[in-house]
Amino acid sequence: MSPSAVVPSTVHDGEQDVNLTASAIDHRLTENDQSNGSTNGQNALSSNGQGNGVAQPNVQELNASNITYTFTKEPRDVPPPGVHSIDGSTISTDHMITVAWSAKSGWGTPELKPYGPLSLMPTASVLHYATECFEGLKAYRGFDGKLRLFRPDCNAERFLMSSVRISLPSFPPAEVEKLLLALMAVDGPKWLPRDRPGSFIYLRPTLIGTQSQLGVQAPAEALLYIIATLMPVMDSPVGGMKLHTSPDDMVRAWVGGFGYAKVGANYGPSLLATQEARARGFGQILWLYGSEGYCTEAGASNFFVLWKTKEGKTQLITAPLDDRLILPGVTRRSVLQLARERLSDEIEVVERRYTIKEVLEASSEGRLLESFAAGTAFFVCPVSLIHHREQDIQIPMGKAGEGGPYTLKLKGWLKDIMYGNVDHPWGIVVQEEH
Amino acid sequence: MSPSAVVPSTVHDGEQDVNLTASAIDHRLTENDQSNGSTNGQNALSSNGQGNGVAQPNVQELNASNITYTFTKEPRDVPPPGVHSIDGSTISTDHMITVAWSAKSGWGTPELKPYGPLSLMPTASVLHYATECFEGLKAYRGFDGKLRLFRPDCNAERFLMSSVRISLPSFPPAEVEKLLLALMAVDGPKWLPRDRPGSFIYLRPTLIGTQSQLGVQAPAEALLYIIATLMPVMDSPVGGMKLHTSPDDMVRAWVGGFGYAKVGANYGPSLLATQEARARGFGQILWLYGSEGYCTEAGASNFFVLWKTKEGKTQLITAPLDDRLILPGVTRRSVLQLARERLSDEIEVVERRYTIKEVLEASSEGRLLESFAAGTAFFVCPVSLIHHREQDIQIPMGKAGEGGPYTLKLKGWLKDIMYGNVDHPWGIVVQEEH
C-alpha cells in the first residue's frame, strides 16, 4: 500500500480554487460584453462549446434578425377581460418564439410559430436536473394607445446571468430583447387590443436543457422559447397581502447558493411552505434568513418596509443584493431609483440586512408605516399583515385601505411610465405590425 | 392612517409555525403508511387534493395491478456491450411506463408502452419551477442467469419522500416497486440478455409537474414515468476518482434546505462547479459545508473515508443524515449495514460530521487509509486524490491500484448480492416474461 500524503499542488491556482464559481461566471458574462470579439482561450469554459463560443467559427451566435415567421392557421379568440385560464391552463397568445441551441453548432434560427406543445425525450436534462431558467416581464397597452415593454434590457441581462449560473448557454441579451419585441409586434395588436388601455400581458422567456442524456452534466443541447400569456391583476388583494414568516426548518436561499438567479430550482422547493401558509389564510411566505431572521423576499417578490427610525427619520428599507440571497428585481431596482430621485428630501432609502425583530420592534413602538412586495407579477402590492411565530404584525394600509401614501406614490409613478402617461426611457414602445 | 400594532395571534399554533414544513412532510408520509385508511381532516394538506387524497372517494390511488400493455411495433436492436448512447443521447429500452395524476381524479391507469417523447405545453410547471424528482437504481443480470433489482423498496420510499418535498403527489411506494418489476419483466430478457451475466441496466423513475399553468404554486397535474437506460460502468476509473473541493462561493445544500431529497433542484445548480473541476482534470466536486468545511458528498454520491484515529482505531466514517444535508443513499446505507454486520471486529463505523481539515491531518500523519464514493451510478468507486485549495491529498489505492482492501471487500460483498452469487434478501428477483 502506498503511503498517503499531502503535497502542495503545482498545477492549480489557489486563488481560483476559492473563487472558482464567481470568477467563471464573471468571465463568461464579460465575454459577452466584448461585442463577441473575445478570442483569448484562457478561460477553461470557452473550450467546451459552452460560453458564447465565438472562438469557434462554426458556432453561431444568437441573432434575432434571422427570425422566420410561420403564422397560425387556427387563431384563437381573445377571452373577455378577467379570464386568464381554461381548466387550470394558462391562456397563451397565438404564437411563440423558439430558438434551439447545441454545443456543436451554437444558436439556430429563431422561429416565430404557432403556440403549441414541446416534444421532449423522457431523458431530457430539464426533466431531471432542473437545467432551466426564466424571466417574467409585461407588455402594457398604454392610455396613449401604444404598446410598451418596461425595461426589457434589465430582464434580458438577468436572463443571461441565470442561464450561465445553471450551466445553460450564453447569448447577447440585446438579441433576446429584440425577440420579445418581435413577438409583441405580431401578437400585441390582437391580444392587447387598443380599446383596452391599462391592460397588460405577461411575457415568459424560458431556457431549458434538452439534451436527451442522463448523467449529471451540463446539457449540450438547449431550447430558448418566449411565450406571452394572460395573467390576472395581483397588486391589490382585498385587505392587502398577508405574509407568514418561513418556518425554522425551511430556508429559501443561502449564501453561496443561487437565490439571486431566476432558476427553477428556487421555486419548486418553496412550494411546500407556501401551500401550508395558504391553507392557513396567508398569501405568501416572508422568507427569513439565518438565526438572526433577516427579511429577504415575500413569496417570489422583493420586500420593502417603510418605517420611522428611532432617530425619527422616515426610511424605506429593503434587503441588499451583495450577499446574493435575493433576486435582483427589476421592479425593486426601479422603486429604489425613483425613491432616490424623487423622494430624497422626504425619506432615506436604504439597502441593508434587517431582521424581523426590527420590524416587530418598529411595530410595537408605532414606527412601522408601510410595507409592500415588489415584483413583475405582484407589481407593487401593499402588505397589511405579517404573522411571525405567535404574533400578528399589523401594517397600516392608508386612508382608502389600498396601501400607504408612499406605496401608492411609487406605484403611481411606475404605472405612469408603463402605460405611457409620461414619456420615460424605461418604457420601450413596440412597433406593432398593424 | 391606522396605527401599526403587534398582537398575539389567536388562530394559529405557535409550535406549528416553527416546524411547519417537517410536520407537514411527516404527516403526509405517515398518512401513506396507514394503509390508505386515514380519514381525519386535521391536516391542512389533505383538503387540497394533494396528499394521497383518500378522504375523497373519487380520487384514485396509484394501483400497479391496473397496468395496461401496448407493445412496440418498432423494436430496436440491443447495442453491443460498451455502447450506451447515440449522438449524445442515452439509449433507452423499447418500453416505458407512464402514469398521469391530477388533483381532481388522482392516479390514472399505469401504461406500459413504446418508449418515446413526452408532449408538454411550454407553460408546464416542471419547465419553470423545477417541480421534479427522480430515482436511480439498477437491474442486474446475475451469474445464475436471474435478473435482480437491488433494494427497490428503499428507492420507492425515497421517491415518495422527494415527491412530497417538491409538492408533487404521494403514492404507496410498493406500487412503484411493482411497476419497476413490470417494466423489467418485459424489457429485461431482451436488453439484459442471459448471455451477458455481470451486466446491468439503469432504471429511472421520474415524477414531473405537468400542469400548464404559470404561477408559483403546487401543480395540480403530474406525470410519473419509469424508463430503463444503458449506462457505462463508472466504478473503476483508471487511477481512481479525483475530487476537487467545492469553492468558497458555492454551497450544494444547507440546513433547512432540500439536500436530502432527490429533486432536480439539487443537480442543475451544481453543474457549474463540476464543469470547472472537470476542465481542470478532476472527476467530481467534494462538497464542503460551512466555514468548518464539513465533508458531505462527492459529486452526486455519498463519500466515505477510512482512517486510523489518533488512538489507533481503524474507522470508516461518513457524513450523518440527521442534519438533512446529504442524500440518504441506498448504497451508503448498504455499505454501513454490511460494515457493521461483518467488520465490527476490525473497524469502527461512524456517521458524524467531519471536516476536510481532519482528512488533511490524517493524511499528513500517515493515518489516511482509503476513501470511496458510494452511489447507484458510481457504485463503490475508489478515490485516489482530493485537491483542496493549494494542496493535493493522495489516498492509497491498494496493491493492484483498484482501491484499498476494505473498499474492495465491501464492493465485492455488494456485487455478490446484486449478481446472485449469494442469496440475500436485498436482491429481488424479477419474474421475466420469457
UniProtKB/TrEMBL annotation, chains A, B:
<dbReference type="InterPro" id="IPR005786">
    <property type="entry name" value="B_amino_transII"/>
</dbReference>
<dbReference type="InterPro" id="IPR043131">
    <property type="entry name" value="BCAT-like_N"/>
</dbReference>
<protein>
    <recommendedName>
        <fullName>Branched-chain-amino-acid aminotransferase</fullName>
        <ecNumber>2.6.1.42</ecNumber>
    </recommendedName>
</protein>
<dbReference type="InterPro" id="IPR001544">
    <property type="entry name" value="Aminotrans_IV"/>
</dbReference>
<dbReference type="InterPro" id="IPR036038">
    <property type="entry name" value="Aminotransferase-like"/>
</dbReference>
<feature type="region of interest" description="Disordered">
    <location>
        <begin position="30"/>
        <end position="56"/>
    </location>
</feature>
<keyword id="KW-0808">Transferase</keyword>
<keyword id="KW-0028">Amino-acid biosynthesis</keyword>
<dbReference type="InterPro" id="IPR033939">
    <property type="entry name" value="BCAT_family"/>
</dbReference>
<dbReference type="GO" id="GO:0004084">
    <property type="term" value="F:branched-chain-amino-acid transaminase activity"/>
</dbReference>
<keyword id="KW-0100">Branched-chain amino acid biosynthesis</keyword>
<dbReference type="GO" id="GO:0009099">
    <property type="term" value="P:L-valine biosynthetic process"/>
</dbReference>
<dbReference type="Pfam" id="PF01063">
    <property type="entry name" value="Aminotran_4"/>
</dbReference>
<comment type="similarity">
    <text>Belongs to the class-IV pyridoxal-phosphate-dependent aminotransferase family.</text>
</comment>
<feature type="modified residue" description="N6-(pyridoxal phosphate)lysine">
    <location>
        <position position="262"/>
    </location>
</feature>
<dbReference type="InterPro" id="IPR043132">
    <property type="entry name" value="BCAT-like_C"/>
</dbReference>
<keyword id="KW-0032">Aminotransferase</keyword>
<keyword id="KW-0663">Pyridoxal phosphate</keyword>
<feature type="compositionally biased region" description="Polar residues">
    <location>
        <begin position="32"/>
        <end position="56"/>
    </location>
</feature>
<dbReference type="InterPro" id="IPR018300">
    <property type="entry name" value="Aminotrans_IV_CS"/>
</dbReference>
<dbReference type="GO" id="GO:0005739">
    <property type="term" value="C:mitochondrion"/>
</dbReference>
<dbReference type="GO" id="GO:0009098">
    <property type="term" value="P:L-leucine biosynthetic process"/>
</dbReference>
